[in-house]
UniProtKB/TrEMBL annotation:
Pfam families: GIY-YIG, RNase_T. Residues 196-274 form the GIY-YIG domain. It comes from the Bacteria. Signal peptide: none annotated. This is Exonuclease domain-containing protein. One of its GO terms (molecular function) is exonuclease activity. It comes from Chitinophaga defluvii. Keywords: Exonuclease, Hydrolase, Nuclease. Gene3D superfamilies: GIY-YIG endonuclease, Ribonuclease H-like superfamily/Ribonuclease H.
Amino acid sequence: MYAIVDIETTGGHASASGITEVAIYLHDGKEVVQQYETLVNPGVPIPYHIQSLTGITNDMVADAPPFEAVAPLIAGLLKDRIFVAHNVNFDYSFLKHYLELSGHELKSKKLCTVRLGRKIFPGLPSYSLGNLCRHLQIPVYGRHRAGGDAAATAKLFELYIQNDTQQAIAAALKAGSKEYFLPPNLPPEQVLLLPATPGVYYFHNQKGKVVYVGKAKDIKKRVNSHFTGNNAGRQRQEFLRNIYSISYQVTGTELMACVLESVEIKRLWPVYNHSQKRVELRYGFYLFEDQQGYLRLAIEKRRKHTTPVYSFNLLVDGHQLLRRLIREFELCPRLCFLQTGTGTCTGVTAGTCHGACEKQEAPADYNQRVLQAITHLQEQQPSFAIIGHGREAGEQSCILMEKGRFYGMGYVAADLSVNSAEHLKDLLTPYPENEYILNLIRHHATVNIRQVLHFS
């Protein structure tokens, strides 16, 4: 027995919207055998644009029962029946949410008449209820009212049953089938063809724009996990409605997938990705020449489109390191902005400053020591490669860090003998770095020592 359902609501997600009307048509596979319709007082005002769309006004629902009053009857009608609706996850999420709030449970198999329409009547320009009914010459009485749309969906479902030569309905109901969890606009074959390998996947909207980027150890398993459950929140429901296609890139390892995901989020800025969009408050040493010709090292927050000569996470770390460079390379604390004011230079008192701040040392002599300090910093940073599994036999993956900076990654022949970072750079694809990527690679290198190839 099928329960063909349509509801009208005050908004697009159950957690912050109310139900204004419910219609349930019980169908035995041949015809409607029972029907139920009721207005519902949503407990919140109905927005004007929804009143205009549905014709249901605040006055009409003022004396209607609240949902909890009709919940026992609705729960009874839906129990042990297959839940059928156009864009089924929308109606199901609302009724499940409000039934649970009323102390009832909804656990039903689901059929989506949008998804079934794509299989039974393929190639149509649109699978909206209105367009399907026009194409199949199904009369609709009371469009955007629960009763009228449920009656039209019942007629549509009857045509599906009569024309289901490929057993699409049985396949969707088959034990273990997860198809009814999928977003209504996503072709199921795209999910079936996903590989069970590490990589990055992309969800695209109707216009082909990437709206979400994710990484996975197993792409197929991770993608399917997005669609299970019946979260009633606005973001999840909107997210599911906007997924029209999936693309992906296979990577050799999960680490490469993590790195590529971060790069792609920064590049594409997808609307449904929220992590890794925050501003990174890293610091760096910046070098510039003042009007007297002296090179000056300054600690500043990293600026967009600029590259510091050295980077660090915490301001206190930068100050400690700069003080060490001042001692070891006899730099001036004033020219490095560690001393302000008009008093005597502390570097002169300590014997580390040769008087550059008082123009007693030539710029060329002072600048030479500044450049030596920078070279020392950069040479102290490690260069190494992380070698891992390739995407297929005969290749291995490689992530290259050069002097503490992320250079890039890619794939090389499994039997390649790697002797230097320079040798690898010609074989790998350069990528931009960020704090998240650097921390990922450094942590992985620390934990997985056997995968690390160090260069002198």
